[in-house]
C-alpha cells in the first residue's frame, strides 16, 4: 500500500481524529493528511492570494486560531484586523490577536470541513501550511459547537472565491 492510500485509510477509519496526530502516526507532513481528505472536506485555495484570504477573516469577528509546532500549541480566540507589513512579516495586530505571519513561507491553504476530535460536530476552518507541509496556523470558525448559518455561508463564499481549481461536489 502506498503512502497516499495509507493516509486515506487512516482518515476513513478515524474521520474525527486530529490531522496532526494522523500525520505523526504515519510519519508524513500534515498537509498530506489534508490533501487525502475527501474533496468535499478539504478544498485547496490559491496560496498566491494568501493576503486576501487572511484579510477576509476580519468579517467573521472572533475566531479560534491555533498555532502548533513540535514543542507547543497555542490557541487563542481573537479577531483579525489592523493589518500591516514589515519586512518578511504580514502583521495582524488587533486588540485580541497579535500575529506575525512569515508570508513567504506559506506553501498551501485549505478550506476544511471536518468532524471535531472533541465532540464529532462538524468544524469549519482555513488551514495554512508552510512549504515543508507543516501547519503554520489554522483559523476555526467553529470550535466546540455548531456553526451559525451566516458563518457557514461566508465560509462557503470564501472557499469558492479563493478555490485553486474547480471541484465537483
**Which superfamily, in CATH terms, is the homologous superfamily?**
HemS/ChuS/ChuX like domains
Please count the helical segments.
5
* Total strands: 9
| Molecular shape | globular
Average pLDDT value? 92
Give the CATH topology.
Heme iron utilization protein-like fold
Widest sheet, order of strands? 1-7-8-9-2-3
Describe what this molecule looks like in 3D:
This protein has a single domain, classed as Heme iron utilization protein-like fold (3-Layer(aba) Sandwich), CATH 3.40.1570. The protein has helices spanning 3-13, 19-26, 30-36, 50-56, 149-162; strands spanning 42-45, 62-68, 73-79, 83-86, 89-94, 97-102, 106-115, 122-130, 135-140. The mean pLDDT is 92. A six-stranded antiparallel beta sheet has the order 1-7-8-9-2-3, sandwiched between helices. Strands 4-5-6 form a three-stranded antiparallel beta sheet, with no helix packed on it. With 169 residues, the protein is α+β, with helices and mostly antiparallel strands. Strand 7 (106-115) and strand 8 (122-130) form a beta hairpin. The two termini are 27 Å apart. Helix 1 packs across helix 2 and helix 2 crosses helix 3. It has five helices and nine strands. The protein is globular, with a radius of gyration of 15 Å.
Task: Give the key terms.
six-stranded antiparallel sheet, 169 residues, single chain, alpha+beta, globular, three-stranded antiparallel sheet, 35% strand, 5 helices, Heme iron utilization protein-like fold
Amino acid at each position: 500500500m502506498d503512502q497516499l492510500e495509507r493516509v486515506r485509510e487512516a482518515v476513513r477509519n478515524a474521520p474525527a481524529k486530529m490531522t496532526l496526530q494522523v500525520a505523526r502516526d504515519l510519519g508524513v507532513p500534515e498537509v498530506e493528511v489534508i490533501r487525502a481528505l475527501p474533496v468535499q472536506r478539504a478544498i485547496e485555495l490559491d496560496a498566491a492570494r494568501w493576503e486576501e484570504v487572511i484579510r477576509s477573516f476580519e468579517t467573521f469577528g472572533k475566531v479560534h486560531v491555533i498555532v502548533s509546532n513540535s514543542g507547543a500549541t497555542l490557541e487563542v480566540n481573537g479577531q483579525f484586523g489592523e493589518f500591516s507589513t514589515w519586512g518578511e512579516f504580514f502583521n495582524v495586530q488587533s486588540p485580541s490577536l497579535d500575529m506575525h505571519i512569515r508570508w513567504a513561507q506559506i506553501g498551501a491553504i485549505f478550506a476544511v470541513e471536518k468532524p471535531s476530535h472533541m465532540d464529532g460536530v462538524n468544524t469549519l476552518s482555513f488551514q495554512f501550511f508552510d512549504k515543508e507541509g507543516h501547519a503554520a496556523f489554522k483559523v476555526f470558525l467553529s470550535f466546540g459547537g455548531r456553526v451559525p448559518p451566516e458563518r457557514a455561508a461566508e465560509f462557503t463564499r470564501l472557499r469558492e472565491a479563493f478555490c485553486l481549481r474547480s471541484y465537483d461536489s
